[in-house]
Amino acid sequence: MSFLRAARAALVNEFGLPAVLMALVVVLAGLSFSCGGSGYTRSAPNHNAYVTLPQRGSVLLLNIDGATGVITMGAQTPQVENSSPTGLALLSSKKFLYVANSRANTISIFNVASDGTLTLSGTPIPAGGSSPNAMVIDPTGKYLLVTNNLTDDVSVFSIDASSGALSLVGSPVFANASPTEILITPSGKFVYVTNPGLGMVTAFTFSNGVLQQMPTSPVLSGAGAFGLAVDGSGRFLYVANPSAPNPSLNTTGNISGFDIDPNTGALTQMLGSPFTSGTSTVSSGPSALTLDPFGRFIYATAAGSSYSIWCFMITPTNGQLVPVTNSPFSLAAGGLFALIDPSGNYFYTGTQSGNGIAGYTYNSSTGAPTAISGSPFSTGTPPGKMVLSE
Fold first, then answer.
1. CA 227/CA 220 separation, integer angstroms
2. Which residue has the higher pLDDT, 355 or 18?
3. How far is residue 172 from each of residues 83, 89, 154, 209, 212, measured CA to CA in Å?
4. Burial 182-199 (b: 16+ CB within 10 A, else e)
5. Is this structure's pTM higher than 0.70?
6. In b/e form, how buried is each residue of 7-46, taking b as 16+ CB within 10 angstroms?
7. What is the spatial distance between Cα 51 and Cα 348, in angstroms, rounded to a whole number?
8. pLDDT digits over 282-324, tens only?
9. pLDDT score of 24 more than 70
10. How much is the mean pLDDT over the chain?
11. Cβ atoms within 10 Å of 302's Cβ, excluding its own
């Protein structure tokens, strides 16, 4: 029975139960409770993920146990010298995976089989610029956007719905110095790119494959501006500034929070920003960000095992960040990437020194993370970027 039908049944008392009780049954049916103070986890099937291995010139398939979050290594694509794959984007509905080869200045297109294995589709195509880095697919699944770090621009490609083939839309668009990370809002109307060397964020409007830099762009964020995250409503943007000083705390690293104008996409720094860990023991700032899919917490991760995971509660009314109890947490983590699986059960970070991926569950009430058994999971060589299937 679908959730919608069950909800309707509760209203008409089809099951002979009080409406409030029936609604509770519906909610609980979708949850499986765990022990050890980790709150609850939603039942989730096993699924796949992919991670680039820049030093090996390949992409690795990951199998994720939906019940535990444990990662096992799957098949690896043939190694290609001097390609250095980094960013990647998955079009799950069409079974296509796109990979940016930063050294070769190309984009590889892979067909995704039912078991998750990858097959290269034709010859990699030119990226439109030099040193393609990060990439994102717009919410419609029609366009792929790629940052080109050395030519200071962003390429936009249209995606052929049947074959997955890419076609460059116009010329790459200037994105200020060394554009790195890229994000598109849930509405698909606005695109934001970080410029670490400038400590800024470049902002664009996006419509029908056309990028146009906003008149108010770029916007100052903080030294080393890198990781990006947006809330599900598209109202708030967060930026990790790993090198930004915090003079009053004698620490380094913070997170900028911005209000997004719903009509223009313009950014205004929110009250209280930038947000810090609030402890003088932190010596390095985080570079990667991720939000849980329910909009409660934002996590920021840094390399190492000392105070390496920051966790904040998001204030729903204004987006302001409030550190959770005991944050930052001293757990093995990494600043290469941070992402939470679609079910909201687990989050993963790329570790530079550990040559792998660290995985955690987190308390649904407090946000406190707990390492998954067997974490970190070795990839044999430092990972580049990771993407999860839906």
1. 14
2. 355
3. 21, 19, 5, 11, 11
4. bbbbeeebbbbbbbbebb
5. yes
6. eebbeeeeeeeeeeebbeebeeeeeeeeeeebeebeebee
7. 11
8. 557 899 999 999 999 999 999 877 878 999 999 999 999 999 9
9. no
10. 88
11. 28
Tally the C-alpha atoms within 13 A of residue 139's C-alpha that lie toward its C-beta.
Answer: 12
> Tokens at residue 7, please?
């909800």
Main-chain phi, psi angles of 299, to 5 degrees: -115, 140
Q: What are the pLDDT digits (tens) for 31-82?
A: 443 433 344 556 678 899 999 999 999 999 999 999 999 999 999 999 999 9
Q: Which residue bears the tokens 């439109």?
A: 128
Residues 382 and 378: their CA atoms lie apart, in Å, by 9
Residue type, 194: T
Specify the amino acid at residue 154: V
One-letter amino acid at 153 equals D
